Amino acid sequence: MKQQPVKRVKWLMRKSLVIAAVLLLAVPQTQAREFLCTAAINYRQLEGSGFEFLDELKDLVEDYMNNNSWTDDRFETYELIACSIQIVFVESFTMTSFQAQLILTSSRPIYGTTARSTLLQISDNQWQFDFAQGTPLIFETERFDQLTSVLDYYAYLMLGYDYDTFSELGGEVHFQKAKRIQQLATTANAIGWSTLESDGRARIIDQMTAPQYKPLREAYFRYHFEGLDHFTRDASAARQAVLDVLTTMQELYQELSSQYVFDIFFSTKFHELVGLFEESDVSSAAYDLLVDVDPSHLTSYNALIE
Predict the structure, then answer these.
(1) pLDDT digits (tens, 9 = 90+) for 105-136
(2) 131 to each of 10, 121, 232, how far by Cα in Å?
(3) Are strands 35-42 and 81-92 parallel, antiparallel or unpaired?
(4) CA atoms within 13 A on the CB side of 246
(5) Which of 51, 81, 49, 86 is nearest to 66 (CA)?
(6) pLDDT of amino acid 6
């Protein structure tokens, strides 16, 4: 198990052998680090031919994410963070210089079940980098690189979110590392890292490291650990814990002027929230909170009062 007590201590005391068997069974223990990441490459939008060498990036990205050490902890196979990275090339400036979209998803297991809860689901349209055939991806997080620094940033962002769900503010060190990468990119005047963008990389990490957003991060822990992880043991108590989380989010939503990280939460959780509260004795209370703090998913939440 991981050596650092900040993460999953309670989880490991009650770990599910079902999850251990179902998740990640095929991953060799000797190669496992923190991630079980799959990658996909799509360059069909590029005009012209000769871009087949971009297929190399699939294996390179998977190896980069899965076989580098991102923390000082040792993860067991069943603890690995499942994630997917899709790179969609949208424009070629030259045969080795590109504009791409990165689509990223990460999730964590729910205790006592074979289900997983999505933590991040991000579409990043501001990725420009150079890549030539045979170019290695070098793991050096203190050196800014158009390609690998974006992977580094999202690796630490995923770690921060994941660790926050297993202990209060447990992801702080990883969020700070993501912040450091953002600062290096800003110094390099790189595209896609500006603090002026309303929904970019800088906005996410600025909010997740800001003191006023700590209650949101604490709510992530309560939602996952006291809510989802306890649902199979005591559904009523778990629902009440999630209601308390939503009340906290409602108060924060009214206090804070920028809600991008709230949008991230609800874009990954709205289906899950409907499933938690549908046909329960607190469905109406949940509905009132949800339509106030997340009106964009009103249609889905209507199932709670039908």
Answers:
(1) 999 999 988 899 999 999 999 999 999 999 99
(2) 43, 25, 47
(3) parallel
(4) 26
(5) 81
(6) 41
